[in-house]
């Protein structure tokens, strides 16, 4: 039999039935990213991926420099070995590649008189070996067996023997005076040459006589060409002593002389060897 409702004890209401269950959605709503933020993240990710591809597959400037430096060192080493230590640039001998040129720049140029130059002939082992060519002093200390005492070209050391470099008369022409040397390049008539060919002599005798004006013009032209050959001959020796031809020589300084010093010396005639070497004038 059921008890009337008014006599019943009130039932215990549990928290589960009396208090509704609170969810995360009810307490703190989840913030949702806006469309602009999402697009920014995608662009940033794409930029990172692009940079990663470039870093993994491309070469930086530093990498290129490292490769070039390695190739340069390898080339220098192979050149040094193949030339027995003569060159690290495969025979290329420009001034900027020569260490002796840089040392000379740092040391400075010497300036000596002809008398002072004589003490640099190799007799004093504490001094370098110098020779001069037309006023320019060169250091040839790298070849003491050639330019030092007892060497085959020792007579060039400690002096300016520019005239002998051209005439080949090493004893009598070991002086710097070049006056008249151009005559060795001026042709002579076949009649004046003892060893001229007979047919050349015959042609010369049958030649037309030139007028004074024609002779003057011919003389001027031959003299100009002779001086050019003289300059070319000196330049060939300058190139050797500058080191342009691979020799370990270099310019050391200049000879100090008073202006017009040639006037105080008697002008020399051509030595016998230079006179004999003069070319024969040709006639058609």
Structural class: mainly alpha
What's the overall geometry?
elongated
The number of helical elements comes to: 11
**Mean pLDDT over the residues:** 81
Low-confidence blocks of residues: 12-25
Strand content: 5-15%
CATH first level of the largest domain: Alpha Beta
* The CATH architecture of the largest domain: Roll
Q: How do the helices and strands follow one another from N- to C-terminus?
A: HHHHHEHEEHHHHEH
Radius of gyration from CA coordinates: 47 Å
- Taken together, the total number of domains comes to 2
CATH names the topology of the largest domain as Flavocytochrome B2, Chain A, domain 1
The CATH superfamily of the largest domain is identified as: Cytochrome b5-like heme/steroid binding domain
Main beta sheet strand tally, sense and closure:
4 strands, mixed
Widest beta sheet: strand line-up: 1-4-3-2
Helical content band: 40-55%
Domain Cytochrome b5 heme-binding: 112-190
Family: Belongs to the cytochrome b5 family. MAPR subfamily.
Region (Disordered): 1-36
GO cellular component, one term: endomembrane system
Chart the SSEs and their pairings.
Layout: H1 15-18, H2 24-27, H3 35-57, H4 61-82, H5 99-107, E1 110-112, H6 114-117, E2 130-133, E3 136-139, H7 144-147, H8 162-167, H9 198-205, H10 212-242, E4 250-255, H11 272-276
Parallel strand pairs: 1-4
Antiparallel strand pairs: 2-3, 3-4
InterPro entries: Cyt_B5-like_heme/steroid-bd, Cyt_B5-like_heme/steroid_sf, MAPR/NEUFC/NENF-like
Biased composition (Low complexity): 12-22
Region (Disordered): 1-36
């Amino acid at each position: 039999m059921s008890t009337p409702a008014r006599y019943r004890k009130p039932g215990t209401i549990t928290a589960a039935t009396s208090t509704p269950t609170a969810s995360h959605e009810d307490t703190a709503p989840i913030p949702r990213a806006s469309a602009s933020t999402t697009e920014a993240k995608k662009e940033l990710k794409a930029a990172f991926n692009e940079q990663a591809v470039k870093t993994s597959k491309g070469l930086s400037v530093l990498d290129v420099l490292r490769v070039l430096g390695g190739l340069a060192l390898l080339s220098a080493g192979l050149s040094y070995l193949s030339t027995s230590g003569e060159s690290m640039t495969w025979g290329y001998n420009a001034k900027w590649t020569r260490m002796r040129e840089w040392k000379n720049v740092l040391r400075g140029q010497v300036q000596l008189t002809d008398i002072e130059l004589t003490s640099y002939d190799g007799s004093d082992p504490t001094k370098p070996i110098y020779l001069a060519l037309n006023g320019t002093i060169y250091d040839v200390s790298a070849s003491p067996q050639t330019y030092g005492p007892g060497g085959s070209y020792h007579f060039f050391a400690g002096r300016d023997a520019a005239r002998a470099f051209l005439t080949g008369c090493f004893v009598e022409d070991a002086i710097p005076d070049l006056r008249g040397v151009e005559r060795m390049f001026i042709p002579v008539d076949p009649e004046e040459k003892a060893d001229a060919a007979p047919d050349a002599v015959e042609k010369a005798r049958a030649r037309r006589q030139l007028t004074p004006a024609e002779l003057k013009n011919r003389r001027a032209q031959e003299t100009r060409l002779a001086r050019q050959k003289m300059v070319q001959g000196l330049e060939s020796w300058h190139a050797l002593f500058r080191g342009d031809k691979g020799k370990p020589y270099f310019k050391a300084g200049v000879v100090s002389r008073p202006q017009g010093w040639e006037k105080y010396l008697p002008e020399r005639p051509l030595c016998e060897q230079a006179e004999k070497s003069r070319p024969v004038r040709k006639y058609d």
